[in-house]
Structure formats: C-alpha cells, structure tokens
Model the fold of this input.
Amino acid sequence: MNIHEYQARDLLAAAGVPVPRGAVARTPEEAESIARSLPCNSFVVKAQVHAGGRGKGHFQDGYKSGVHLVKTPHQVRDVASHMIGNTLITHQTGPEGKPVHAVLVGESTDIARELYLAIVLDRSSGCPVIVASQQGGVEIEAVAEKSPEAILREVIHPGLGLQPYQARKVSIFLGFPSTGLRAPCRLLHAAYRLFIEKDCSQVEINPLAVTKGGDVVALDAKLGFDDNALFRHKEIQELKDPSQEDPRDLAAAEHHLNYIGLEGNIGCMVNGAGLAMATLDLIQAAGGKPANFLDVGGGASEEMITAAFRLLQGDPAVKAILVNIFGGILKCDILAQGMVAACRTTPPRVPIIVRLQGTNVEAGRKILKESGLPLLPAEGLMEAAEKAVAAASGKKGK
Amino acid sequence: MSVLVDANTRLLVQGITGKSGSFHASACKEYGTQVVAGVTPARGGEKFEKTVPIFDTVSEAVAATKANASMIFVPPEFAADAILEAADAGIQLIVAITEGIPVMDMMRVRFALREHSCVLIGPNCPGIITPGACKIGIMPGYIHRPGNVGVVSRSGTLTYEAVWQITSQGLGQSTCIGVGGDPIHGLTLQKAVEYLHADPDTKAIVMIGEIGGSEEEEAAEYIHSRVKKPVISFVAGATAPPGKRMGHAGAIISGGQGTAQAKIEALKKAGVRVAETLGDIGQEVVKALGK
Done:
C-alpha cells in the first residue's frame, strides 16, 4: 500500500525524523494561510499524487510542473489554485494522470548536500537493510548502475535491531564529520523504528538534505507498507486514497480478487498467481496483449467467479476473455456454474475462450456446453492463447 | 525412497478445526497420509472426524502421538506463533500453508529457526507430496503418480500444471515440493534441488520459478557446479510489468532486479533445459529422460 508525501512526512515527524516546516492544504486559501504562518521568505508547493517525477510532470490543462518554488504567500495561493482540482501527468502516472486534491506547502530549504537513505527488506538474508549513498536526489537504481561503490548496504540483525555502531558507520559513509554524528544517528534510529513499528515494506528518504545551517532533514520521502500486516495498523489503512487507484483495481479489491490492470485487450481470469503470470506470458507469446492480471485464488467461491467475470465484462478495453483454470481446490464445475450465472445476468459482449483442466473437469465442460452460451473451448494452453488473440483481433480462431 | 516425507510420516495439523484446516486434513487422510493429531487451543480433548485426537498445544500432541510433521492452517495473525510452537516442540518438518503472514513476522521466524534443526516449507505454499505415500498440503492428490521426476516450485497451480503434464506423458513423480510465494520463506529452491539430487529414486528434476528475488539464480549456480541429473525449468512472469506485485507477495520486479529474463539466462548457462512456454514442460521432461 502507498500513501501521499504529506502523510509520509507526518509519520516521519511523529517518529522523530526531522522534516521541513509545512502542512497540507486542500484549498488555495488554506495554502496561503499556511505560507503566512511559516517564518521564511521562500516556499515550496508540491502537488500530492501517488507517483514520482512530479517536478518534471505537467498538468492536463498545460500548466507546467507539480513542484513550484515561490517567494510570497500570495504566489503560493496562485500555484495551489492551478494544482488543486487539476490532473498531474508524470512518467509514472500513465497518460491519464492522477487527480490532485491537495498540495503540500513548506518552507524551502537551503541545501548544502543531498543524500540518499532507505530501509528495505533484503530477501536473500531475510533481514532489514539500510541503503545509503552520498548521491541523493537522483534515482538510486541509476547510482547502482554507474557507481555501485557509492552505495552502502548495512544489514540489520532482525533479533537485535539497528545497533549504535551501525548508525555511526552509515553516518560516516554519508560524509558526516566524526564530531557531528549525533543528529544523523538519531535520525537513523527513528527511521528504523518507524520501519519496524509500522510494518513498512520500505522507508525511502530521497533526498535526505544537509542544510547550509548544518541540520539534517528529510526533504522528500516514500513509505510503502506490507499489505499482509495492515490488519494490525488501522491508522495506516485510514491513509488510503481511492482517488489515486485504478477504478478496476478498487472494484476487484472489494471482492477480494487479486487484480492488476494492464494495457492490452485480452481479459484474463485464472486461478493461482503463478498460472496467471504464465497465462500473460502465453498471450504475449501468441502475439496478443493482456488487459489484466486476475488471480481468483485457489478457493474461489461462485460469487467471486461471478464478480470477476463482471469486472472483465465491464472493462471497455477488453475484446476477448480467456479463462484458464486448473481445478485443484477450485473445482471446474464450481467455476462453470459461476460463469454461467454471470453470463445470465450480464450477457457476454465479447468472445470467451475457456480452458479447463483438473478436478471435475468433465462436469465443468458439460455445464458450459449445456448452457448454450457462446463459449469457445480449448484444451491446450497455447491453443487457448492463440484462440484468444485471434478473437480479440476480430478473426475466427482455428 | 523419496524426499522429506514418506509412508512413515506422522502428521499433525495445526488449525484442524478451521474451515480449510478440517477440509484439507480430511483430504490428506483420505489420500493415505497418517494424520495422527490436531491442535487447536481450547479445543483439547475433542476428536476430529471421531478418530484424530485434538490437543491444546503442539508439545502435548507430540508427546501423545509421536507426530513428526506439522501442517499449519492457522490464520495469518497467529501463524508465525504456530510455526515457532511446532519448532519448539521438536517437529522436524513444518509445512505452513497459510497465506498472508506479515513479512516482519516471517523475518523473526526465520531468524528463530536458526536454532532448530527442523525444515520449514512455505508459508503461502501448496505443500509437499510423495505420490502414493504421503500428501501434506492442498494439492489435488489424483493428478500425481508415483515415479521418478522430482518437482519443486514457487507456485501452487503451476506445480499442478507441471505435475499433470508429467503424469499425462505416462511418467510419475518422486516428491513434489511447493516452497511458496512469499518473499521470506523456509526451504529455498536450491535446498529443495539439493534434496532431490541426493534422492536415488529421483532421475530428473523440474524446477518452476517466477519473477522476484534471486533464488532461481542461486539454484542455477548450485546446479551448474553440483547436479548431475537432468534439470528442466520454467520461469513465469517474462512479460510482467516491473513494480507490480503479481499475486504472490514475492513476485515483484523491483529496481530492475528479479526479472524472468535474468533467471532464464542463469538457468540456461547452468545447462538447465528451460521450457519456452508453460505447455512444454512435460515434453521437455520426456526429452531429458531420453524416452
């Protein structure tokens, strides 16, 4: 799960990580009054969307950049009035962009150095790892590629947590003088505590700025959370912003379906994540493009199948649907009943190719056949994918 | 012979009174697995299906029934605790089926298990089966057939696909292991390959991977230096978009790491036969065995 920058900023501040002064505004008037309350003569106004690349982005109406630096509270109001209610398009949002409902108004910081700091999970050791670099303000992947030696990875013992010597080591690597380690060490401990206490999947502070006055502050931060642990963090669940999500994803989440919207035109319904992924691969190997990833799970009920089917039918981009089921726990006859029920209430508007295999496969095929619905059966995996691709492009399958 | 489980395995089921736990305990029993005990706190003294004694704690169950393997269906909030309880009671093989355990919990579990000699399979996995002898997990039993192809996989349904293709070719399986789809889990692909390689009844190994992490690469390195048996592989997610979690918590390409292309390349370099598409696994196995 992802949250807004201003929410990440509040969580960091509450954990004891220094952040620039400022606050979130939902109207231009609010933005102006926040600016007036800040004791400074230069302000940053940042559009709040769930995407990176805001500075280089542009708005739907042609207004440039989601990050502005201005001199007066009046200008803050002006910038905010352009951003709020507008849609920001960046290289991460896709061409449709993301709606802006709020801006973060903050003091601008005199930056001496921009650093990079992140805490993530290291899969191979199964431990948290601190990733640090003096080359902040740019994407860490680019640094890793060009100069891997400029990155420190400090693995943290999951039983013991971050040790003081490790915080000192990271701080020294980040270029802090040995007489000035207290502030960065305190920040590291605070960020690590946040990572553990909130079940984060990542805490990324980029840039971590050293000001001309010598302070250390988190200028921008991205927090990610482990979806599996949200049950014990009501306060994080409340930060969810549905306006930033694909509406198809939201509909799927409501029915506990594992769904990811993609760009193509072949809707997929599959049981099991691995098989769903392999089905996307098959479609592309056959020359087509999938409209989605959809795993109905091993133990899907008839209701879930019906909901999944409606979701695919309701997506205007979908020109054909491929159902690929290996019946294990989810028996083929249950699946067939769900599909028939869904087709009765929402008649199919696109060709549907069905490949069933596994438990009760004969019963399932029989139900589909006797339903009188226009379903194209397929036995082989590649055969099913080829039929779907042909159907989506308007041709008759083999 | 087989790997990790056989007809002598004595299974206990943690969470046996829950919906999934009871359904699958029953299915395993029906398959022929010796289901000797169940554990559900506060339900001790009851019987499952009138025959299997239920205990409050794992240690009581072990003392009374000599159970040596556990299958866990406990809900995600309590699953880490259940794994630790099993390890502490001396269970040698722990199969955690539960999906959705917080990563931090698994991080602590993995660290704690260093002090135990047990093997953890999963979590978020289909389990392990030695066809005809012992099934611990949620896989449909009837698609399997005793034979000499070992299967290890990160995905449940992909394992079933592969197993079905192998069975349809007239072959069978020695042992099939699903290691699970979570980023932090117990048994790794490499360790499973090591077990299958050491098993004299396994003549070929099928390893099914997917995007995310680096276990396929690590297994490839091991295969290259140590494995003499033919290895057939398939990697799912060649066309998955980066940064998206593809169903499994662990199936994600992040920062350019964990792509299917990198894994396939490493496997090919190690001399592994990589099936081009999912439907080709069975035929590749036949070719590898020279039949």
User: Anything to note?
Assistant: The mean pLDDT of chain A is 92. Chain A is about 35% helix and 25% strand.
